[in-house]
Write a structure and sequence with these properties.
Blueprint lengths: L1 E2 L13 H10 L6 H11 L20 H10 L2 E5 L8 H5 L3 E12 L4 E12 L2 E5 L7 E3 L1 H12 L4 E7 L7
Antiparallel strand pairs: 1-6, 2-7, 3-4, 3-7, 4-5, 5-6
Helix pairs in contact: 2-3
Catalytic activity: Thiol-dependent hydrolysis of ester, thioester, amide, peptide and isopeptide bonds formed by the C-terminal Gly of ubiquitin (a 76-residue protein attached to proteins as an intracellular targeting signal)
EC number: 3.4.19.12
Pfam families: Josephin
């Protein structure tokens, strides 16, 4: 992996890694906390304070449903990668593939607190860029490094999503 400073990224803020990966995929500030909170509110109709799709008060912790709607509203679709299948070079070379989003479990405070964290691998300029808001820098990866990285990750109970061009109908 090589350091890649020229790729858009946002540094982790509160529990807003879902927001950060959306903006990293679009390579600009495409979404705000207010927009993602509003999508969460739409998805949780009839709820008052507790929202199963996000934390209150703009803290973040956005779930997959919010991200799926956000991608859809900008013309992209979020496809689950079947964890039983290997990630192949052919899949990574697909011309409709924009990037890959990964959601994995994080432990904090010696394992006393567990939460999920989003990061992405954005396809740009003939490479993939690992963009993780909790890290200090982006890393550029070859297709082979990306394939190996994702296949290693999928064996550790992470969720992998392919982000592709093309609209899908998503409620919300």
């Amino acid at each position: 992996m090589a350091y890649a400073p020229e790729v858009y990224r946002e540094q982790q803020s509160l529990m807003r890694c879902g927001l950060h990966i959306l903006n990293a995929i679009f390579q600009e500030q495409a979404f705000s906390v207010k927009e993602l909170d509003a999508i969460g509110d739409e998805l949780a109709t009839g709820r008052s304070f507790f929202n199963p799709h996000r934390f209150p008060l703009g803290l973040g912790n956005y779930d997959v449903n919010i991200l799926e709607v956000a991608f859809s509203r900008r013309g992209l679709r979020m496809d689950w990668h079947d964890p039983r299948d290997q990630v192949t070079a052919k899949q990574l070379q697909d011309s409709t593939l924009i990037g890959v989003v990964v959601n994995e479990m994080n432990s904090k405070f010696g394992g006393m607190f567990k939460s999920r964290h989003w990061y992405c691998l954005r396809k740009l300029k003939g490479s993939f860029y690992l963009i993780d808001s909790s890290k200090k820098q982006n890393d550029r990866m070859s297709y082979e490094e990306t394939r190996w990285f994702l296949n290693e990750k999928k064996n550790s109970r992470v969720h992998i999503f392919n982000i592709r061009e093309g609209d899908v109908e998503v409620e919300g």
